[in-house]
């Protein structure tokens, strides 16, 4: 996948930003608070995911109160396509079109335009709570399987309905027929999510172990194991046993009804899962150094890009926000060998510290405008 033209105006502080990206490397430099990360966020806008900076959509609007216009042309390996996003202060609902046709659901963009972004905040994959790692796994497998997006959203909807029944704290004899309906649905969707998470985490561990080994010069080993709250370490968690697993999931929910009624929420399910990350056999979250955590987070994101490319036979667009400049030459060279066949957008305050191999287009931003290319 390659971006072939970019036009941005009114997205946060960006003003009349227009350029033809290099097919390889695009280094966006400038001092702090000049709009470098905003540019990456605008490119991410069409992925169908919420902002990697957790920005609310109303905050996309121009700092001067004007309208937003973001237009990208990209080649998906077969043809060139065009995506446009518009938003006005009077109507803060963003409108996206693909080749002139309105996009009704942002999830439809998953199959159309894909980016992998890495930012300094992504160390939360290691240091944050289980919900961050669950979301990462769900995003990763949803990029590969169209059903993934709808399944994750449907699970959350069913879970909220079940919890609404539990919060009433009525006698179980009254709520059991309704709970049974939700439990059957949760078991079906939850089992699918568990199977996808486990399958993806196994591939992720293999890819990430190899990449992290190269980043650490072979001095450290990592493990990434999916921890299912429902199924535990049952060896038979596989596609071939999905019907049996679904029944097992249902029985777990059924047996927890009394406890859940007392608690007022659902105590078991895929919303309690985690991805366990170990460095040399110990918890990366609890015992990893800052450097180890950052390297592991980077390896996870690069593995995501590799797995997507292998499955789709088309590389995603790579967005690296203020990352490479903090790596020494050896680590930059390792990253370069991984991303060298991909289109990459790199932000940095000091492009002189980047290795020469990252030669491509240089864009200098100041006050949200391109002042030189």
Task: Describe, in plain words, how this protein is organized in 3D.
With 373 residues, the protein is an alpha/beta fold. It has 10 helices and 15 strands. The chain has helices at 36-44, 124-127, 130-144, 146-167, 172-215, 242-255, 257-263, 284-287, 290-312, 329-339; strands spanning 2-9, 17-19, 25-29, 68-75, 80-87, 95-98, 101-102, 115-118, 222-227, 274-279, 282-283, 317-321, 344-348, 361-366, 369-372. Strands 2-1-4-5-6-7 form a 6-stranded antiparallel sheet, with helices on one face. It has a 6-stranded mixed sheet with strand order 8-12-13-3-14-15, with helices on both faces. A hairpin with a 2-residue loop joins strand 10 and strand 11.
- Overall pLDDT, averaged? 90
Helix content: 40-55%
Instruction: Report the strand count.
Output: 15
- Count up the helices: 10
Described by its quaternary structure, the protein is single chain
The radius of gyration over CA amounts to 22 Å
Largest beta sheet: strand ordering: 2-1-4-5-6-7
User: Helices and strands: which structural class?
Assistant: alpha/beta
Biggest β-sheet, characterized? 6 strands, antiparallel
In short:
With 373 residues, this protein is α/β, with parallel strands linked by helices.
């Amino acid at each position: 996948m390659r971006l072939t033209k970019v036009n941005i105006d009114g997205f946060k502080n960006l003003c009349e930003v227009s350029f033809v990206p290099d097919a390889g490397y695009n280094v966006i430099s400038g001092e702090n608070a000049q709009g470098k990360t905003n540019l990456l966020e605008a490119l991410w806008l069409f992925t169908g995911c919420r902002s990697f900076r957790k920005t609310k959509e109303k905050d996309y609007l121009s700092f001067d109160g004007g309208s937003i216009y973001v237009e990208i042309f990209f080649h998906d390996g077969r043809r060139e396509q065009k995506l446009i996003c518009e938003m006005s202060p009077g109507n803060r609902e963003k409108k996206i079109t693909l080749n002139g046709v309105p996009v009704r659901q942002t999830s439809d963009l998953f199959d159309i335009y894909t980016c992998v972004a890495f930012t300094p905040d992504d160390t939360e994959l290691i240091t944050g709570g289980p919900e961050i790692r669950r979301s990462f796994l769900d995003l990763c497998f949803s990029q590969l399987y169209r059903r993934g997006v709808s399944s994750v959203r449907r699970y959350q909807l069913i879970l909220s309905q079940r919890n609404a029944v539990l919060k009433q704290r009525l006698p179980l004899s009254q709520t059991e027929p309704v709970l049974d309906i939700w439990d059957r649905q949760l078991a079906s969707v939850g089992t699918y999510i568990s199977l996808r998470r486990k399958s993806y985490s196994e591939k992720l561990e293999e890819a990430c172990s190899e990449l992290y080994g190269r980043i650490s010069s072979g001095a450290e080993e990592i493990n990434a194991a999916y921890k299912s709250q429902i199924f535990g370490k049952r060896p038979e968690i596989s596609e071939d046993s999905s019907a049996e697993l679904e029944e097992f999931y249902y029985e777990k929910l059924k047996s927890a009804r009394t406890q859940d009624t007392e608690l007022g929420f659902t105590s078991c399910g895929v919303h309690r899962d985690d991805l366990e990350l170990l460095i040399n056999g110990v918890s990366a979250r609890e015992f990893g150094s800052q450097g180890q955590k950052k390297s592991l987070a980077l390896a996870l994101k690069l593995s995501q890009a590799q797995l997507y490319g292998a499955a789709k036979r088309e590389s995603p667009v790579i967005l690296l926000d203020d990352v490479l400049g903090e790596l020494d030459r050896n680590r930059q060279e390792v990253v370069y060998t991984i991303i060298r066949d991909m289109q990459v957008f790199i932000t940095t305050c000091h492009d002189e510290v980047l290795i020469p191999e990252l030669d491509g287009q240089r864009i200098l931003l100041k006050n949200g405008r391109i002042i030189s290319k």
